[in-house]
Every structure is written in C-alpha cells, then in structure tokens.
Amino acid sequence: MRKFILYSREGYTSPFKESLLKAGRLDTVYQCILTSMFTSHAIRRENEFHAFLYGRPSPPMHLSIDGSTLFDVRVDEDTWRSIILKVLSGETHPGVSLKKEGIETYAEGLKEIYILSENGVNIDEVEFGDSPAFFLGDSVGLPKKFEGLLVRLGGKKVSIGRKRYLAASTIDIVNYLIDRKESD
Amino acid sequence: MRKFILYSREGYTSPFKESLLKAGRLDTVYQCILTSMFTSHAIRRENEFHAFLYGRPSPPMHLSIDGSTLFDVRVDEDTWRSIILKVLSGETHPGVSLKKEGIETYAEGLKEIYILSENGVNIDEVEFGDSPAFFLGDSVGLPKKFEGLLVRLGGKKVSIGRKRYLAASTIDIVNYLIDRKESD
C-alpha cells in the first residue's frame, strides 16, 4: 500500500464557483489524484491520496481518496471538480472523504514517512516497507517547520534527481519505480 | 529534443461545447500536454507534443505544441480547453498550431521512432539519439496497421514494464528515464 500526501497551501476549503486553478490551485490536487489513483483502464486499489487544504475559508481540511473503495469516477478535471465540490458541500462519494484535520496530526499516525526532496538520498537505494507514505509540497514546497516535524517523526528525505518535477509527475515516477521493484 | 506523439481515435476536429472528456476524450490530449511540456515552474523547451485527432467532423487534424516557443500558458485543463478551442477555431496561440495532416505523413518525416509497447525491449537498454520520437496510443492503443507502418519506417518497440499506464504517465516515466540518463 502506498500513500501520497500533498500539502496544499491555498486550496479552498468550502464550495466555490471558480475553476480548480483559481480555487487556490486545486488543479494541482486533481493532477495528483490522476497520477496517484489511475493506470490505463484501472484504479490503483492499493493506493491512497491525501490532500491537506490550507486555503480559505476554514483550513485545515483533509481530503482523502481511498483506492480500495473508489467508485464511479473518470480521469478528467471536470469530473474531479464535481467530486471535490460535492464533498466540500458535505455530500459523500464512494472512496472520497473530507474531514477537519491538520497535516501534523495525520503525520503523527504514520509509520513509514518519506519526504520527496532534491537533496535526499537516491530513491533507488531505499528499501520500502509495506506502507510507505510520501509527502509532497505544492508549487511552493513543504513548509520548513512541517518538514522538521516529519524528520523528527523518523521521516527520510528521498530524491528522484536534480530536476524539480510537477507534484503529479513526481507521483508517476515514484509509482513507476516501486512498480518496477515489485515486479523484479 | 524529445517528441511525444499521441494517436487520438475520437478527438473532435472542430470547435465544441462539451468538456474535453466528452469531446472525444480530448482530456487525454490535455493530460499528455501536461506531462510532455511542464516541470515545476518551467516549460520543457526542448520537447514537442503532437496529437493526431481522428474524431468528427473533419479528421485528421495535427495539433502540435512546441516547447521552444510555447508562451502564456498554465497547467490546468480549463486553460488547455480554451487553447484547443482557439486553434480549432482558426486562431493562433504562441507555440501551439493546428494543420490538416495525417499521422502517417508525419511519421514518414521522422528519423528515430519508438513505439511504447508492453512487449518491446526494456527501455533501460536503449541508447537514444538526439531526437527520439515516442508514439503512444489513446485508451484503445495504436491501430495495428499504423504500428506496422512505424515498424517499416525503422520504429523500435520499447517497454517500460508490464503495467499498462495512462498515456500521460507513460510520458512522465519516459521523460524521467531520459532525464536520468542525461544527468549521469
């Protein structure tokens, strides 16, 4: 089981009329859902995606997607805008949930923490356990203070190289590298 | 320079009112543009993306994105829906162009062709030249007859593993593997 966790500095926390981009860069959240949860014609049943939204008006909010129960979804942004609006309005969708929780509280419950970072150890040299949790920043990156907490919780910095990829591309790359190890 | 080329069986070839998904799965085209052309806060200036649209009403159409001149863009689906509609309406956008051309004619002008395929040779064993062109199918895959043409043109089948990834994820993985080779 793999968990991908995105810190969204500005993601709106109540229903909105704007596009996902204008709603505090929720387009990044959508793109990460796409690459965390989908392969061609299939849902990654063993994956979870978590976004912690710190935008207006009522941060923090914890949006989570559970691949084991995710249902009735497509891969486009419009579909996910509707689903995000639905859960922000208090409605439910199979495999998608929303609750009032900060990222620190969530992190404290995890056993195997990784922080994607250019100056981490080469990801090829890491032996992952059964339930790795990968933390990613939005376009501004993770707040330093929170990165410090992750390190105190035993989090390891891992690197996929010098280039700075989109958060969604980083997830594609990590999924691929672990898929490859698992099929060896 | 890298070229990514997507065969879009149903992508609409004139302006539409629908979402990209409903316009013949143009959402796949958008997702491939995202992963072909963008890293964090930057455009991949050395990359090109080409989609060949075979949907109604006037196939084929060749939509191309040139990273070296691409300008005034964001990474979300809404932005790209507007740009695609603009060029389908005959207007221009920097780095984006549209012309009436079939994928066979385009392929015949290429020197270094790769076909992403589960039963190709392991991509790690391939030495890429200066200007590799990677062909990807939409959710249905490349038509067999066209794959045959690519092979006759010297195209090599390359594989990133057994799993069938989204076209956009495949592009992320190929970009990553070449980035990694280049930084060695």
The mean pLDDT of chain A is 96
Q: Note the total helix count of chain A.
A: 5
| Highest-level CATH class of chain A | Alpha Beta
Count all strands of chain A and give the number.
Answer: 9
Tell me about the largest β-sheet of chain A: 7 strands, mixed
The share of residues in extended strands of chain A comes to: 25-35%
CATH superfamily of chain A: SPOUT methyltransferase, trefoil knot domain
Task: Describe the structure in your own words.
- The structure is a homodimer of 184-residue chains.
- Chain A is built from five helices and nine strands.
- Chain A has a single domain (1-184), classed as SPOUT methyltransferase, trefoil knot domain (Alpha/beta knot, 3-Layer(aba) Sandwich), CATH 3.40.1280.10.
- Chain A has helices at residues 26-37, 77-88, 103-108, 144-152, 167-182, and strands spanning 2-8, 38-39, 42-43, 47-53, 61-66, 96-99, 113-122, 133-137, 156-159.
- Chain A is α/β, with parallel strands linked by helices.
- Chain A has a seven-stranded mixed β-sheet with strand order 6-5-4-1-8-7-9.
- Chain A is globular, with a radius of gyration of 16 Å.
- Chain A starts with a strand and ends with a helix.
- The interface between A and B is large, with 37 and 37 residues.
